[in-house]
Design brief:
single chain, globular
């Protein structure tokens, strides 16, 4: 499926992390894919409310939880800077789809990083 939200199409996900060699591109690519899948899910079945949006972001957060092992295997980790960037990306998605009032912490409440 193609993303139809132009704001999302124009956005470079995880850009600050790609600029830092500490974070391996091949793992960041998987993180970008997680975020794009989240966007696809929002577009296929637009959430009627924040509770439904949080269910979608919870699933994506769990995918990032699983990705942490790949960061570790590559000699990296989801540390403070990465955590902040990833959380901001979740908020970007919420805002891009009309949920500017989403709670930033709730968007990634199930994170283990």
């Amino acid at each position: 499926m193609s993303i139809t939200n132009q704001q999302v199409n124009d956005h470079a996900f995880l850009k600050p992390l790609y600029a830092d060699s500490y974070f391996p591109d091949h793992v960041l690519d998987k993180g970008t894919e997680i975020l794009l899948r989240l966007c696809e899910r929002v577009e296929v079945a637009p959430p009627a409310d924040l509770t439904t949006l949080y269910e979608l972001t919870r699933r994506a957060t769990e995918e990032f939880n699983a990705l942490e092992a790949e960061f570790d295997a590559a000699g990296s980790e989801i540390e403070t800077v990465a955590r902040e960037v990833i959380c901001e990306e979740f908020y970007f998605v919420a805002d891009a789809y009309g949920f500017a009032d989403a709670d930033r912490e709730e968007l990634t409440a199930t994170r283990e990083w």
